[in-house]
């Protein structure tokens, strides 16, 4: 497996070999040995309802955990537990038909091209006000489908996230966030899919975002918290992400976010992918997962008290 280029995920010619070498897995025998170890471990996890995974899937699991089989075990175990604990995030599989109402409010996609250092860029481009907690839950579900696809198909060193809130009333957007649901969603991303975030870039001129970020930073831990950046203008994002790989909505040369989202929905909505997502949603654990203290957002409700713009 030396290339996975498709309409959604492009690689540099040297991505696979560079990433493997980065984690000391450039030798095929070393990589096979690591996959064998993970495969053997899975066979012994009788509390998992699914224990047979393709070797390509296991390889990517190890790669995304910096070449560590032990971290890959941790990630798979956590995600299986979270599917059992939070089934509402995993109960929609057909991106083509299940998320059409999102098109009015926001477009989201992992971008086709990698950065030069082999990071994948994720963009959320929010276009209209009126988002409700139910709409946000749909956004979270759609994001998780894309994460599942990335885990099965991509080969990269991590993720850069861009959240573009320039077109909306940020205090109203923050007020729509249900704390408990947001808490669970971030837990799934950070402990289930274990996103390796090189940076989070929030684009808005609203001062309300600063108070919000201050509250949620502890969730990400000290290392990732230092990588959260707020930009009043999109142009300063170009210091971190090459402008040419960004969508036209953000001043780049790539297709618009509307086109990219439609491409993702087309691919995720194929029969093959819908069946795959349904199958993966059944990969659960009978052992409970306990949230770590760092995920305590202290209560339920919403962030309405932050709306002070």
What can you see in these coordinates?
- The protein is built from eleven helices and five strands.
- With 309 residues, the chain is an alpha/beta fold.
- The chain has two domains: 15-89 and 284-290; 95-268, CRAL-TRIO lipid binding domain (Phosphatidylinositol Transfer Protein Sec14p, 3-Layer(aba) Sandwich), CATH 3.40.525.
- Strand 1 (106-110) and strand 2 form a beta hairpin.
- Helix 2 packs parallel to helix 4 (69-85).
- The model is unreliable at 293-300 and 303-309 (pLDDT under 50).
Describe what is shown at a glance.
By secondary structure, the chain is an alpha/beta fold.
What order do the SSEs take from the amino end to the carboxyl end, as H and E?
HHHHHEEHEHHEHEHH
CATH names the topology of the largest domain as: Phosphatidylinositol Transfer Protein Sec14p
Largest sheet: 5 strands, mixed
How many domains comprise the coordinates? 2
End-to-end separation: 51 Å
Summarize model confidence as the mean pLDDT: 90
Low-confidence stretches: 293-300, 303-309
CATH architecture of the largest domain: 3-Layer(aba) Sandwich
Our Rg estimate from Cα atoms comes to 19 Å
CATH class of the largest domain: Alpha Beta
Structural class: alpha/beta
Percent helix: 40-55%
Structural shape: globular
How many strands?
A: 5
Q: Total number of helical segments?
A: 11
What would CATH call the homologous superfamily of the largest domain?
CRAL-TRIO lipid binding domain
Strand coverage percent = 5-15%
Features:
alpha/beta; 2 domains; five-stranded mixed β-sheet; 11 helices; 44% helix; globular; CRAL-TRIO_dom_sf; CRAL-TRIO_dom; CRAL-TRIO domain-containing protein
């Amino acid at each position: 497996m030396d290339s996975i280029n498709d309409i959604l995920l492009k690689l540099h010619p040297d991505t696979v070999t560079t990433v493997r070498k980065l984690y000391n897995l450039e030798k095929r025998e070393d990589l096979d040995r690591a996959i064998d170890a993970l495969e053997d471990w899975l066979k012994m996890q009788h509390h998992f309802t699914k224990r047979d995974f393709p070797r390509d899937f296991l390889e990517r699991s190890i790669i995304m955990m910096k070449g560590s089989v032990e971290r890959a075990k941790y990630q798979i175990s956590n995600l299986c537990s979270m599917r059992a604990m939070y089934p509402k995030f995993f109960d929609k599989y057909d991106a083509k038909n299940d998320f059409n109402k999102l098109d009015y409010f926001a477009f989201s996609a992992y971008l086709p091209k990698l950065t030069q250092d082999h990071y994948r860029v994720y963009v959320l481009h929010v276009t209209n006000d009126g988002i409700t907690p139910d709409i946000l839950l749909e956004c979270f579900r759609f994001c998780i489908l894309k994460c599942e696809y990335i885990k099965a198909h991509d080969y990269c060193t991590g993720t850069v996230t861009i959240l573009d809130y320039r077109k909306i009333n940020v205090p109203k957007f923050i007020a729509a966030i249900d704390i408990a649901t947001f808490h669970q969603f971030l837990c799934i991303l950070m402990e289930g899919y274990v996103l390796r975030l090189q940076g989070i870039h929030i684009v808005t001129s609203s001062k309300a975002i600063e108070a919000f970020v201050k509250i949620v930073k502890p969730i990400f831990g000290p290392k990732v918290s230092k990588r959260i950046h707020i930009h009043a203008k999109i142009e300063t994002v170009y210091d971190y992400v090459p402008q040419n790989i960004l969508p036209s909505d953000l001043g780049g040369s790539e297709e618009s976010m509307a086109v990219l989202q439609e491409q993702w929905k087309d691919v995720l909505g194929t029969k093959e992918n819908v069946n795959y997502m349904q199958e993966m949603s059944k990969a659960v654990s009978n052992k409970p997962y306990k949230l770590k203290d760092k995920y305590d957002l202290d209560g339920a409700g919403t962030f309405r008290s932050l709306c002070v713009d």
